[in-house]
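Work Package 4 report. The design task specified in the project plan requires that, given a folded chain encoded as structure tokens, an amino acid be chosen for each position. We show below one input record used in the internal validation round.
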């Protein structure tokens, strides 16, 4: 078990009540593992205290990335939610702290 930041990078932002989190993987082998492992359910569970709606996942095969839309995760929007510190730009850094159980042979592709 490692932190996601050992095998990926992230970008995130917000739009209204929703935020998006893009996770970019270091190579095709790790990306293919992530397609099976990093599901909408797993991401929703990780952000369970922040996401009140669905999590929708989009695949970006050409850049080995996954984009997650976290519906109803900002209590009314980024500027409105500054009172409670919920801004989409913080979710990218947060997801990188997720513990992931990656097989050793897949992880070794990244080092």
């Amino acid at each position: 078990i490692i932190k996601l930041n050992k095998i990926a990078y992230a970008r995130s932002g917000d739009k209204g009540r929703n935020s998006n989190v893009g996770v970019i993987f270091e190579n095709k082998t790790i990306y293919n593992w992530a397609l099976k492992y990093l599901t909408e359910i797993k991401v929703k569970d990780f952000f369970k205290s922040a996401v009140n709606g669905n999590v929708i996942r989009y695949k970006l095969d050409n850049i080995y990335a996954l984009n997650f839309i976290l519906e109803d995760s900002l209590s009314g929007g980024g500027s409105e939610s500054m009172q409670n510190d919920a801004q989409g730009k913080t979710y990218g850094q947060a997801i990188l702290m997720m513990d992931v159980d990656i097989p050793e042979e897949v992880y070794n592709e990244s080092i």
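The longest strand covers residues 8-15. Validation will be extended to a larger panel in the next phase.
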